[in-house]
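Priority: low. Protein: Transcriptional regulator. Input follows.
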Amino acid sequence: MSEGRREDVLATLRATDEPMTIVAIADELDVHPNTVRFHLDTLVADGRVERVEPERRGPGRPPQMFRAVHRMDPGGPRRYQELAEILVLSLANQRNAAAKAVSAGRAWARRITAHDTRSASSARQSARWLVNFLDDLGFAPQLRTVDGQQQVGLRHCPFLELADGGSDVVCPVHLGLMRGALEAWNAPVTVEKLEPFVEPDLCLAHLRVNEVPSRE
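Result:
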């Protein structure tokens, strides 16, 4: 009921190009001004209504004026996963899809590290920075060494629903993300390959030490 009344207040403001007072809105809806005031506070906080500075035409404080903000409702439903599925499907159907996905991951890394001016001085430091980087993004990474080779185990996929049916795109994006971050730090390490789902709850990124940071 409260949501419905709030929408009534908003609809009343949208029906006119002129700002309205609380009393005018209340009269239009045949409700108490306090009811209108309560809903206006929420609508203003949500960015759907704005206060308007009234013109002073005499002594005393002029009444508060309000008008609707004409834009898409920021509180409306979101369908981001469907959009992501469409984009993954579109990329998967292109030639050289994996290479393009790696490039997309690199671009993502460049965006994240745009203001990161650090330079990694060692392979160990590079691996530690990479783990922290991936942890911030929700990958639940674990640094490990197997037969003398450093690996990063990923225990969580932030895009699991997409990866289940589109690992040929999503996993290369993650590979490009890791390579791009290491390149941004001028790291003497790159990610040689990413093995998806070596276990039901584990993907493995294999690190390789280079004398010169890879830009591939």
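The beta strands are 20-21, 49-52, 65-68, 141-146, 149-154, 189-199, 202-209. The helical segments are 2-14, 22-29, 33-45, 80-92, 97-112, 123-136, 160-184.
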